[in-house]
Write a structure and sequence with these properties.
Order of helices and strands: EEEHEHEHEHEEEEEEHEHEHEEH
Number of strands: 16
Helix content: 25-40%
Radius of gyration: 21 Å
Strand order of the largest sheet: 9-8-7-10-6-1-4-5-11
Strand content: 15-25%
CATH class of the largest domain: Alpha Beta
Number of domains: 2
Largest sheet: 9 strands, mixed
CATH architecture of the largest domain: 3-Layer(aba) Sandwich
Distance between the termini: 48 Å
Length: 322
């Protein structure tokens, strides 16, 4: 069975959820092998083994963490040449997609970004499902040249455990001068609350123009906290200064694909829909029954969010307490 390389997303010693999802996908088509770049592999090995990594290729040079994405592509290119994998899977994050593009150039291979599903093609190979043109069209794509390099959106697949050995194998790579051209000069740890990260959350509650002002976003936060969800916002809300821009969901913000997406007071402009329409289940609360967002909804409530949201929050908290 051919190997499928999975670029491990991690923060220090902590394996990010999307890596578990990629390993789960990889198991369906080959033998998953995680690629860990930087320190912390020993601590992350148990998590990688839990979700099926047969091997963990570790590149942990003394200064490898001092550079940005270019070294990642060089390391992956070396592994592609040595191991001849059936495919390379990365997370469709800004860093992951940049690494995928650079790797495609280095290996003369095709690259597919923002995949939301994978299937086996006729005659072998992987077929990726993509949502394009702001979600207006769903297409199936496949790489015809070189090693398929596919960037998969977080939360596109459910992570399912399947224990494996996760044998660690060191990878020695001499980075080129070009890969060292841009150096990280400073790192600042962002303050985080107890809510999950927006792009990795299984549930997202987003507020839009209908919320009215920044103070009213407490309603969105309370509902999100009752569900253990992340908080998002539409572009209209962030441009108005009601919520920080790093929580914007949409074409010019972050793309999310949670198991449950609650859109509260959001009309559903194409810009916003492009960032959330691949969510597994979509629930909408809006007082306008003609709002475009209802076209995507699996469940919809036509009503005043200031009446509906507090009742919904209360009911969720009541059921959680029982």
């Amino acid at each position: 069975m051919a190997e499928i390389l999975v670029l491990a997303e991690h923060s220090g010693e902590t394996v990010k959820k999307v890596t578990s999802e990629l390993l789960t996908l990889a198991r369906q088509f080959g033998e998953p092998a995680a690629v860990w770049i930087g320190p912390g592999a020993e601590a992350g090995r148990e998590r990688l083994a839990e979700f099926g990594a047969a091997k963990v290729y570790v590149a942990d040079g003394g200064d490898i963490g001092d550079y940005v994405v270019a070294p990642v592509a060089e390391i992956l290119a070396v592994l592609v040449a040595q191991k001849s994998p059936a495919a390379v899977l990365v997370a469709a994050t800004p860093e992951g997609k940049e690494a995928a593009g650079r790797l495609a150039v280095k290996t003369n291979s095709g690259v597919i970004t923002d995949a939301v599903g994978l299937t086996a093609g006729d005659g072998g190979g992987l077929v990726a499902e993509q949502s394009i043109f702001g979600g207006a069209i769903i297409v199936q794509s496949r790489v015809r040249t070189g090693t398929p390099i596919i960037a998969v959106r977080p939360n596109s697949a459910a992570a399912e455990p399947a224990p494996a050995a996760a044998e660690i194998e060191a990878v020695a790579v001499e980075l080129s001068d070009a890969a060292k051209a841009v150096r990280v000069t400073e790192r600042v740890v962002a303050e985080r609350g107890e809510r999950p990260e927006l792009t990795e959350a299984a549930i997202v509650v987003s507020g839009g123009r209908g919320v009215g002002n920044a103070e009213n976003f407490v309603l969105i936060e309370k509902l999100a906290d009752s569900l253990g969800a992340a908080v998002g916002a539409s572009r209209a809300a962030t441009d108005a200064g009601w919520y920080p821009h790093q929580f914007q969901v949409g074409q010019t913000g972050k793309t999310v694909s949670p198991q449950l997406y609650l859109a509260v007071g959001i009309s559903g402009a194409i810009q916003h829909r492009a960032g959330m329409q691949t969510s597994k289940t979509i629930m909408v609360i809006n007082k306008d029954p003609e709002a475009p967002i209802f076209e995507l909804a699996d469940f919809g409530v036509v009503g005043d969010l200031f009446a509906v949201v507090p009742q919904l929050t209360e009911e969720v908290e009541r059921r959680s307490a029982n």
